[in-house]
Specification:
- The protein is of the alpha+beta class.
- It has 2 helices and 5 strands; from the N terminus they run βαββββα.
- It has a 5-stranded antiparallel β-sheet with strand order 1-3-4-5-2.
- Strand 4 and strand 5 form a beta hairpin.
Length: 135
């Protein structure tokens, strides 16, 4: 199930010399949103291990309001895969359009940084869509 994970506004310090948001800045926001999605389902630390299929579809400009949605798409033994989508709201039409998307994979870890079984650290109140991924 797609969830709102992060929302904000782009400011001049977020822009590259071309006047649009730095790709690395966008990726860092996406990583934060994905980490929030992971925190919603497990009660241990997790680290980003891969980012794949990143697509920069349209630029983000100064003053744009961005919304980042996440969806847990797979749960492995110690890993969680999250689809992350960034949308920008058109202030004239009030409609949103996707500007960037990617897939982030996290690995759940213990206090020593060693992978742990995701099922052993799940929150008790995970949603039904996430439960289906565990089957």
């Amino acid at each position: 199930m797609r969830k709102l994970s992060l929302k904000g506004r782009t400011y001049p310090t977020d822009l590259n010399p071309g006047g649009t948001a730095f790709g690395g800045w966008v990726m860092s926001k996406m990583d934060k949103a994905a980490s929030i999605a992971v925190d919603d389902i497990i009660r241990s630390s997790a680290v980003t291990v891969t980012v794949s299929r990143i697509n920069f579809l349209k630029p983000i400009h100064n003053g744009d309001i961005f919304t980042i949605y996440t969806e847990i798409t797979a749960i492995g033994t110690s890993s969680i895969t999250i689809y992350v989508s960034v949308e920008v709201q058109d202030l004239n039409t009030n409609k949103s359009h996707e500007v960037t998307s990617a897939e982030f994979k996290f690995v759940a870890i213990d206090t020593n940084g060693k992978p742990v079984n995701v099922r052993s650290v799940l929150h008790d109140d995970i949603d039904e869509d996430t439960k289906i991924l565990l089957q």
